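FW: tagging you since you asked about this chain on Friday. Here's the raw sequence from the shared folder, copied in full. Didn't touch anything.
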Amino acid sequence: MAMTEYNPPREPWVDIVFEDEHILVANKPPGLLSVPGRLEEHYDSLWSRLVEMYPEIQVVHRLDMDTSGLMLFAKHKDAERSLKKQFQYRLTHKVYYARVWGHLEQHEGEVDLPLICDWPNRPRQKVCFEDGKPSQTRFEVAKREENTTIVRLLPITGRSHQLRVHMQSLGHPIVGDEFYSEGEAFTCSDRLGLHAAELSFYHPHTHQLESIFVPCDFYLEAESAIFNYFDPVRELPDYKTLPRP
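HL: got it, structure written out here
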């Protein structure tokens, strides 16, 4: 499905949450591309706005255009290599908040369903047990509302549209989702109800574990969840000893 109209938000132009001489973390608003699209009219993006101020800045991961929240950038090549290696070997953790349609029966659990691109309907993804790539998402209910539920989501893998398809597979699509919701689930919200609220990673210079949190505009009670609600701690190799990507 091609983008028919692109009207990215202009205020605030850039919302920087944290920066030092090695990295920068920004809060991307919904409706703004992470990186430029192929067409000239799709050049405006979080990266293109930042590169005006930081010419050497590098992208290390992305968010869907309609998803809001934290994006981590590298300010130089050494930081870029370190951070990309961490994402490759799953040394980073991200927590999202989502508003989904209906009420989940389980308070917490894990979705383990393989995903693959639905080529005739791309960029949609779909569950495919024959050729899909392994995909896991942990979830926990944060608040039950009248017609919707706020859930915390911890993706173990990082497949395209993973959280959106996994929530749909439970029968509770994320509200405002143009690809995976319909009827009231789509019309009840003027935006995709998905926000990347928290990101943990090893600082590329100090090698210390960092955790950065940014509030969620559609759920003001959102709070830091890494280590408080989820327990992502496991025996992980020191990323400095891993082979280069």
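FW: Helices lie at 46-51, 77-88, 162-169, 184-187.
HL: agreed, and Residues 95 and 226 are 7 Å apart (CA to CA).
FW: great, closing this out.
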